[in-house]
Amino acid sequence: MSTRTLVLLAFVIGAVLGLAYAWLIEPVTFSESSPAQVMKPYREAWLIMAAEAYVQDGDWARTQARLNALRDADLSQTLTALFERYQANGPNPTARALARLADRLNVRTPAMQVYLAAITTPTPEITPARGTTGLPRPIDAPEATPTMTPEPLPRLPPTVTPNPDYQVIDRVAECTFSPQPPQIRVVVQDEFGQSVPGKVIWITWEDGGQDRFVTGLKPEIDPGYGDFDMQPDRAYNVGVDKPTSVIVSGLRADACETDGRTSWRLILTPRLP
Question: pTM of whole model > 0.85?
């Protein structure tokens, strides 16, 4: 028997024995892997997709099943660390979705509360008068002829703006030097003196301009702190929650020392009844 034949025979015998071992003695078994068994970047991607899906459909039972699949004993810590990483890049939908999911799990940080502070203006509903459909009158519909002249309405007293819900307990003028701009620096506290993040502070000025910021974005200064850059030629008003709730008015960045401009530091607390 030639050497070439022996080599071919050995190859065939080895292949047969290998197939027999793989198929009969130690066959390969397949099983589905879970999110808990994949690498960390894929687990984080799973958590982000679960948060975004919850924001879209609000299905908490399905979201819980997705979170349970991670088998993460420190899910709150994982979620907080992931949120902090995303919110460091500025406001974005992913951080907002993670904050929403964390809130559902009773996990809250000052930065999360900033994302959860919804600023919405409800649209008033117009209730049609009794006996009408609420639909606009057709153009060709004839005007209804009144059968009697209505009495003139009594003159109402001028509208009185109610006192705002917050008050100033401390107001300090501080001199700010270039290149730092003069600012309105606000700290919001509750009735017990604890700092409150997530409060919406409105800034308005004479020509109808307005802007807003939210406390809590600089927790290294104070959890209830927020600031606004001032322009030298404007007088600013400060309100909480809505632009019409003015607490302080007429704040100006006047010159204070050589090359300096006045900044204002305010501490706001709820107004006691």
Answer: no
